[in-house]
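Operator note (shift B, R.M.): manual run for Alpha-1,4 glucan phosphorylase requested after the automated queue skipped it. Running by hand, logging everything below so the morning shift can see what happened. Input copied straight from the record, untouched. If output looks odd, do not overwrite the archive copy; leave it for review.
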Amino acid sequence: LGLDMEELEEIEEDAGLGNGGLGRLAACFLDSMATLGLAAYGYGIRYEYGIFNQKIRDGWQVEEADDWLRHGNPWEKARPEYMLPVHFYGRVEHSASGAKWIDTQVVLALPYDTPVPGYMNNTVNTMRLWSARAPNDFNLRDFNVGDYIQAVLDRNLAENISRVLYPNDNFFEGKELRLKQEYFVVAATLQDIIRRFKASKFGSTDSVRTVFDSFPDQVAIQLNDTHPAMAIPELMRIFVDIEKLPWDKAWDITKRTFAYTNHTVLPEALERWPVDLVEKLLPRHLQIIYEINQRHLDHIAALFPNDVERLRRMSLIEEGGTKRINMAHLCIVGSHAVNGVAKIHSEIVKTQVFEDFAALEPEKFQNKTNGITPRRWLLLCNPGLAELIAEKIGEDYVRDLSQLTKLHKFVDDDLFIREVAKVKQENKVKFALYLEKEYKVKINPSSMFDVHVKRIHEYKRQLMNCLHIITMYNRIRRDPAKLFVPRTVIIGGKAAPGYHMAKMIIKLINAVAQVVNNDPMVGSKLKVIFLENYRVSLAEKVIPATDLSEQISTAGTEASGTGNMKFMLNGALTIGTMDGANVEMAEEAGEENLFIFGMRVEDVTELDKRGYNAQLYYDRLPELKQAIDQIKSGFFSPKDPNLFHDVVNMLFHHDRFKVFADYEAYVKCQEKVSELYLNSKAWTKKVIRNIAAAGKFSSDRTIKEYARDIWHVEPSDLKIPPPNEPREAGQDKTPNGTAA
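Run finished. Output pasted below as returned.
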């Protein structure tokens, strides 16, 4: 048709229906589940507006609505025939026949299905996203004084439920609309699952047994963080109030059905819903949560008599001030398996965050280290490297990434070393052209591409990177004749709109870039770019072009990270702390093949005991003092010298993430990075060793572990025959009974 595929791809909008790692992980998991032939569904909300588009104006982040459906979405199919009602508000009536939730407001959940194809196996799974619709008699059936027009306009109130994604990453905002969203997706999904269960041959095996006896053998539900935690009381409500199961039977089935994945240990991210809000919105669910809690606490009191402190710690309800429901506690009590997302994180979950629960049921707690799909994060985004690897070890690695270890044979192969370096250089040139087009800055493609892309958050320490940039800048100015390894530092990511400090960090990076990029003494030695509107489609461009991946969170704060894995697979070297999956990356590749620096978890704990005093580091380290003084004095903000007062004040007086404590080790480690970069061959050898060790970080491996250890289903590598080939009669379409 005379159309250019790449040009066409550029036009399509990202489906930005998540915030950061959590939503992207779910997408990788869907790809892997289809590729492994699992009968699995992904459920979520079809937001009309996804994560905001980020514009940078005068160095500040400005948000714009992400109207991603403006031109329609060709991949989705509305399924009005499966529309389901979801209830809110109302009251509970108790009678001899049990509890009834009545006088509720109804919102309809309309499903949209998106196909999820497995890799070359003729399997296509479904992602089902729910959209909120007002019923046609909305506001018209009740004592309406005849304002028909207003009644129709008020339909928006119901339909607002699926209007917009809350843009917070690692932060809990206890808003009523957010709780509505969480219950909406849960209530619609559970009805859908039960409808499918009842319609299947499994539901009717034996009329003597309770119909739901086989439910946990046929259905596994994985809770992606606590956001869908209301599924636990909702399933109990369906079993007890509607299906009339006895409580103990219902609870046994519920626990065996659910498993919970924890994604963060930051206290401000844990969901703690006010009891009075839940009572207003979901009165029956609050009663059920109270009953779950009562039985849970009775059990603990029997095991630990007179230990009231333990009861307080382990309760689902937090007293003091406004009473709140601790959703993580609800998930742990209501699930048969709980997992963290990297070894170090799962250890922290067991020994610190939920230690009382782990002491009670140690066998419930597991680790499932995150992974990424090599289809998107190698084949699709880096065809040059994928092809080069295939030439050496064949194409099977795409489905079995552990085969990358075969690349170890070629680590001393001069031709292969040159080819790997050549692919990287081509990717850098291509990205440099993109940057020049978008940002009107001249990029030196032979400079080291030092990349820090992720959500902007204090714990991820973009500020520490910023201090290193200022330090490099000062060194160049102090001694312009001295050899300096040229760098292009690229920082990108969105800040939650209400997160003041994160927005100040973006402004600071842009202010520093303004000075550095326009100083003639610096020239092309150092360039700083803030990447606007970081998103999946932009990640696919920048990651293959990266030399140095920045993974520098304070040890013990990043649960896993997945960007770290994408960079490793695409031939970047990592500078990072011993945090999240970095620990396992170093374990796989050898610590000498990563640039590991800074405090370990034990050191952070020790420093907390002693008391962190930022002033000490400022007084002891002249280069740190110089950088901070420049920020404080207005060197980077001459029109408003006090602009960064809040940032500096935070760094000295309430920096929970201890930027100054790791600054010296970070700068020294960066010197080692520059030194190695001068030796292209030695650098590329480390790159090859990293790629060869990246196999563990396939989401295929992660999903196999979930399937075997939690869902109890077997992945199948059976290639289903294509639809145009006739099948043998009676051939079972789903080799796996359980639908996850």
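Quick read of the result: Residues 383-697 form a domain with the Rossmann fold fold (CATH 3.40.50.2000). The chain has two domains: 5-367, 383-697.
Leaving this for review. - R.M.
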